[in-house]
Amino acid sequence: MDTTPQKAGQVIALIENGLSQRAVARQLDMTRAAVRKVCKRYEEAGFFHRRAGTCRGRFTTIRDDRFIVSTTLRNRHLKAVQVQRQLRELRGMRPEYAAMVATEEGKCTEDQESDLQILYDLGGDRVHRRGGLTAVRYIEEILAIHVVPYVDYIGDEFTFMHDNARPHTARIVQYYITEVGFRVMEWPVYRPDLNPIEHLWNELKRRIRARLDHTPNSISELIVAAEKEYFNIPQETIANLIRSMPNRMREVIRERDSDTHY
Q1: Where does the Insertion element IS150 protein InsJ-like helix-turn-helix domain start and stop, copy by copy (predicted)?
Q2: Exposed/middle/buried for 128, CB within 10 Å: 0-12, 13-18, 19+?
């Protein structure tokens, strides 16, 4: 069976990062013969998908290839199916939204003392973690893993959106973003929050409250409930939030500094 483009991309990324074919085969649970075949194809043709002229056409575009390689280099332990899922989600975005990535932190508490946070991005990934979000953790756990890989995939049109929360505006974060070199949407100091994830987060919390008829007994129970309800949110709910953005923006402009009904 031919190696999938996602796994082949991981092979090339790891080889070019200095790993031996034996080490790559062990890490990706492949035979050494399969790894050699991918490397030979890459050396001969300059890419790691099936050569033109065979019974099946090319599975991935050059942009896909860049995303596979950059994602693998930033997280060597990703499985090919995980890379494939991320790539499929990116391909499924509508063009007008595919160039934008946003983050938002939400709090879903067991009680008033809990600081569990669940973070989402428009690409569909989610990260659950405990503890306060510092600037360093924002870089290492969010930007480097869940944002930077999208830059190579989207290209020059990439725009990142986050608000003026303290970890986002820290000097070390601004320096990191400058070094990586991606565009950030300007966010005025006094502004209504138009991030549609705000409303998605509220929907998730309503669903969790409806699902659990008791206070969660542990962080793990809360995380399980949050993940299950997140995947139960209909795609149409998300699409409606996105489609409402023009009306939201018109109302913000009309009301100026006043609150909107949203």
Answers
A1: 10-47
A2: middle
Phi, psi of 57 (to 5 degrees): -80, -175
Is-contact 195 81, C-beta < 8 A? no
> In a structure prediction context, what are the per-residue pLDDT tens digits for the chain, which is 262 residues long?
567 766 777 787 777 767 788 888 888 888 888 888 888 877 766 555 544 444 344 456 666 666 666 666 555 566 666 666 666 665 555 444 444 455 555 544 444 333 333 333 333 444 455 557 788 888 888 888 778 776 766 677 788 888 888 888 899 999 888 888 888 888 776 555 677 777 888 888 889 888 887 777 888 888 888 888 888 888 788 888 888 888 888 888 887 766 666 6
Distance CA 237, CA 239 (A): 5
Map out the domains of the chain as residue ranges.
Answer: 5-91, 95-255
Spatial separation of the C-alpha atoms in residues 12 and 140, rounded to whole Å:
24
Provide the sign of the torsion angle of the four alpha carbons 131, 133, 136, 141, taken in this order.
Answer: positive
Q: In the numeric block, which tokens belong to residue 250?
A: 């018109």
| Total-model pTM | 0.44
Q: 82 φ, ψ to 5°?
A: -70, -40
Superfamily of domain 95-255: Ribonuclease H-like superfamily/Ribonuclease H (3.30.420.10)
> How far is CA 12 from its chain centroid?
22
Spell out the SS3 assignment of 229-251: HHHHCCHHHHHHHHHCHHHHHHH
